[in-house]
Predict the structure of SNF2 N-terminal domain-containing protein.
Amino acid sequence: EWLRVPAVVGEYRPKSRYWEQGDPRNGGLAITVTNYEFIRRADRLDPLLEQADERSLLILDESSAVKTHNSLTTRACLKLRQRCGRVWLLNGTPVAENPGDLYAQCRIMGDEVIGCRNWWQFRARYAIMGGFKAKQVVAWTNLDDLTARMAPYVLRRLKKDCLDLPPKLPPVPVEVPLTTATWRLYKSMRDDTIAWLDEHHASVAPQAIVRIMRLSQLCSGLLGGVVDNARPEDDPEVKTVSQEKLEALLAWAGGQWEAEPNAKLLVFARFRKEVLALALRLSTRDPRVPFGLMIGGQKPAERKRSLALLHPDHAPKGPAIVVAIARTAATGINLAASHSVAYLSQCHSLFVRSQSEERVHRPGQTSPVSYFDFVATGPDGQRTVDHAIAKALKRKLETSTWTCGQWATELRAE
């Protein structure tokens, strides 16, 4: 009885389903539910365009999905918006990476919202350009003007005012010393990276992000090409050189279950290969503890089973653990059966971190939520790039905008 009027609800995807309430032919509502990925193709979008008219309401949930102004998803949603009379955008974090994320979302609401008819006009008004040939956005300006223009179209409700949830506890760092051999590799790569960064001091070079990612990989025991959440076959050169963090995570999990035998644990990581390595160890550790995996490209049934392990309405009574790539499982799901979250490796994105933290701080949570950051150190406690990333995330800084000079300063602080 969630609707008080006759309605037919259709799920628009490869396997469609329909639900009816009352007789929708007598002035009822026709509701279509789909996802962003499915409507990227024109042959799938066209049937929706035929249904939409000036009486239609378009609702975009988790609207950060349309933050990129020239993506296929954004273009599809713009076409839908042009047919629909009204639109609502729902989002707890509308600015995922930087203020530029607002342009496409505002354009979908209407050109009159911020008065910019294209991305270049928006960039000229609010971005400060620099870097190589002054073609990179290095900072943002006039944000008070942007906020004022958007204010009449924004209705904000804080979660603390809507939900009575237990507190989120401050993250607890778990320092993991690297072996002498791994530390030797790390120092060599770090020194080479600093030398390269010094040569490109003022720019925000994509190559800098690649080099920093290599350091992050090595902190997770991986050496070779750069693999974030790609499939292993995409880069066969990546190899495992050590497993310090993995062993520390298993020890941490054992301690959690010793203190709370029925604890349900959630582990986020950045790199696919370390997630698969951890899943392999968990699958043979204790058959009495069910574990789930959430990574890109898995079968829907497998993902559904993993979600059920930590969903407050479906979780088993005993212990469980779910391992996920942060970008894959950061939004739109409820894992509130768990109140202990570990970050085996950190994604640089502030958006991914903040959204992933919220997966357990949802309706159904009954305990204070604890977060644990696994941070690699040298054999004698020396700092690594893990510390720089953790510090930036704690201060809510977006490292994607850091110049090469900023990264060099952080690495020298080690």
